[in-house]
């Protein structure tokens, strides 16, 4: 048997094994026609076996976080607090009056890379977000405050400023692998940030179990090794 052929075969098998565990970006898209929703509702989105559960929150300086309505429209997720109508532009995620946020909880740890926001009109696009590893059902933010978020497992707040525009914006996320992210307009903004949340892109932090083709590759490597030994003994 030709040793050059054996070498090429071994190289191909190694390449298969090397690429089997490579992480790749996954995008969850939040668009549809679900309307404004109800107070305390949740929406789920699944891509490549990982589910994101999203809930809506508004923040009042006296009462802390309160449940809100999570709307779903053709350009993304929006939030309507319990005290406001759900028309335009208040059906977006905004910081006019009560500040509004979306809590994303992941069924497996995710290294979040970016969030796409899209204003319905021409508005400022500044954001604030918290990522972390939390253990709580979707309603346990009720009554919590900005200062108590770290006690729940969130990291420090990160602010990211945009510009006034009607165009979508991809917000880079700085975070390790986490199971939750609280995302919304800038927490101390001037009340002029409005947008919908169109998508979230991240990388699954866990490496999947070997598939059948990977096991086949390992078997091929073993076979090549045996054939090589036979060549040298001949």
Automatic annotation (TrEMBL):
Give the highest taxon in the source lineage.
Bacteria
Does the record's keyword annotation contain Signal?
Answer: yes
Record InterPro entries: Ice-binding_C
Ranges for domain Ice-binding protein C-terminal: 206-230
Q: Which residues form the signal peptide?
A: 1-25
What keywords were assigned to this record?
Signal
* UniProt-recorded name of the protein: Ice-binding protein C-terminal domain-containing protein
């Amino acid at each position: 048997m030709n040793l050059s052929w054996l070498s090429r075969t071994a190289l191909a098998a190694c390449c298969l094994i090397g690429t089997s565990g490579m992480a790749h970006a996954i995008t969850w898209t939040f668009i549809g026609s679900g309307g404004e929703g109800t107070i305390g509702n949740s929406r789920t989105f699944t891509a490549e076996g990982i589910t994101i559960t999203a809930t809506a929150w508004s923040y009042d300086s006296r009462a802390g976080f309160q449940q809100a309505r999570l709307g779903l429209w053709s350009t993304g997720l929006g939030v309507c607090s319990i005290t406001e109508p759900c028309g335009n532009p208040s059906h977006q995620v905004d910081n006019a009056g009560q500040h509004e946020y979306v809590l994303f909880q992941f069924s497996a740890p995710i290294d979040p890379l970016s969030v796409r926001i899209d204003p319905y009109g021409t508005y400022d696009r500044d954001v604030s977000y918290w990522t972390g590893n939390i253990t709580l059902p979707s309603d346990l933010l009720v009554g919590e405050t900005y200062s108590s978020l770290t006690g729940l497992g969130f990291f420090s707040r990160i602010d990211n400023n945009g510009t006034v525009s009607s165009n979508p914006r991809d917000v880079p996320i700085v975070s390790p692998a986490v199971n939750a992210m609280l995302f919304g307009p800038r927490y101390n903004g001037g009340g002029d940030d409005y947008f919908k949340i169109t998508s979230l892109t991240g990388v699954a932090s866990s490496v999947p179990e070997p598939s059948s083709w990977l096991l086949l590759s390992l078997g091929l490597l073993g076979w090549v090794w045996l054939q090589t030994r036979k060549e040298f003994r001949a």
